[in-house]
Request: fold
Amino acid sequence: MKKSHATRLQDLLGLLNSNYPQHLAEEWDNVGLQTGDLTQEISKIMVALEPTLSTVNRAISTNCQLLITHHPLIFKPLKKITPSDNTGKILFHAIRNNLAIISIHTNLDHAADGLNDWLAATLHLHNCKPLLQPKSGELLKLVIYVPRVDADKVANAIFKAGAGKVGNYDHCSFSSIGVGTFRAGEGCNPHIGSIGTDEQVEEVRLETIVTRSRLKRVLEQMEKQHPYEEVAFDLIHIENVPGDVGLGRIGVVETKQSLKQFAAVCKQALNCPALRVVGNEDNSITKVAVCSGSGAMLIHEAARKGADVLVTGDIKYHEALTAKELGLTLVDAGHFATEHIMASRLAEKLTIQSQKRGWELEYITAPNEIDPFTII
Reply:
């Protein structure tokens, strides 16, 4: 075990990012630090599904300095922060009491050993794989040619913008040194050399990867930090797709069972009082797809991959009709029931990882988080 030292918020954020990289999050999502000072010392952390006012109050009253949630407190850009609206009130209360908030949402959904893996394990599924993997072609290799003296500056800028992430690693790149040649024409303002003269410059070939969703931001930072008027760079399509990352999971039950039997397993495992089901009670269940929270977008993929049933939440009427026409059984356990395992599983994992690092931290889970829906 490593020697104990004061653990700061930036240490916890780094640990979460190493497990659940932010680049795995959907583009529309707002994951990561919601509020807090990265230099703040942390000794006690609460883990919760939702950043509600009652949960924030409980975290403060139990002397926590950090609240880690699944759902973000801030989804859309705020035009103002006042205590007159709910989000503003929560932010005011957290900031005044030095409570930092970090959210890990769709990056936790997509990552290996994340929420969908935990859901699959809770339902006793075996041989699980991602139901929907990132599309081939989402990754690009970016090759930049930059003067050697400027290479670190350009590399740091594109890494900060989201390039260079491979699984649980970031700042990944490969560099080689060579000689670049050019001649500036009339109207140019060359950073090196003069107009009409052949120039040779010691340059670095900097190679890294970037997702298409981050490409625009990365190129903007590259051009901002690169010294040349005309930046020489290549974009290369690559086919690599991580095998353990993706949305949802698909696996098999240990023994074939009827839908009625499988539904009983779901109710007990998820502590769910009732289910909405599309399909007949005697339907045979062997291959099971799951998606925590809202998974209707995976109905076609689950059917295409031969799943007998999709377990998820938030299914709408027409989505249920689509599944029925595809011959796919649905088990709608609800948004809360398919996600509430997050707090205990994450707290357990972070406790073990913190102990290995010699961090003297206490993790607790938010008590009494309940489904806002009740069955009458």
